[in-house]
Design a protein that fits this description.
It is a single chain. The chain has an eight-stranded mixed β-sheet with strand order 6-7-8-9-4-3-10-11. Strands 1-2-5 form a three-stranded antiparallel β-sheet, with no helix packed on it. It contains one helix and eleven strands. By secondary structure, the chain is mainly beta. It is globular and about 40 Å long.
Length: 161
């Protein structure tokens, strides 16, 4: 583990991209994130679409919490800047894949075959301050019985239509 919270600089030749992901150069705003051990780092250039709290049983198990908070972004705007070789992927259903750091176990991404141009990034992994705020709770029909939703965000029994 590194002794600093600051990411190490990477040259463009060190960048590796997932299939279908592109390098988005020239964007003014760049959000950065990393895993718990700091070995996997990523950037998002472009606008974030939304933040949702997912209460489905798979997200609850994957995150070990009452719900998982994900930031929706365009796949083309995401790139790894370090540690992509440490990213492990798990197909959690016929249509979805989850990614996590193989070293520290941090949840990183959720990707759906039904929305191939979108990526859902675990909100807790961002090092940059997010200006966007959560907009809704999804899959509340399968929320943990021991958790009560007490905010005024929209609630959807299943996905957010």
């Amino acid at each position: 583990m590194r002794g600093s919270d600051e990411p190490r600089s990477q040259s463009q030749s060190d960048w590796t991209l997932n299939e279908g992901w592109t390098l988005n150069e020239g964007s003014g705003s760049m959000l950065r994130g990393s895993c718990l051990c700091g070995e996997v780092r990523y950037e998002i250039a472009g606008e974030l679409n939304s933040i949702t709290h997912c209460h489905c049983s798979m997200c609850r198990k994957a995150h070990g919490a009452a719900f998982a908070s994900y930031v929706e972004a365009e796949s083309r705007d995401l790139r790894f800047t370090a540690g992509e070789q440490l990213v492990s992927r798990y197909r959690s259903s016929e249509t979805a894949q989850r990614s996590f750091c193989s070293r520290c176990g941090s949840n990183l991404l959720f990707e759906s075959d039904e929305a191939p141009n979108l990526v859902y990034v675990a909100a807790g992994g961002f090092d940059s301050e997010l200006q966007l705020r959560p907009s809704s709770h999804i899959f509340v029909g399968s929320k943990a019985p021991w958790f009560d939703i007490t905010d005024d965000l929209r609630q959807h029994e299943a996905d957010s239509d």
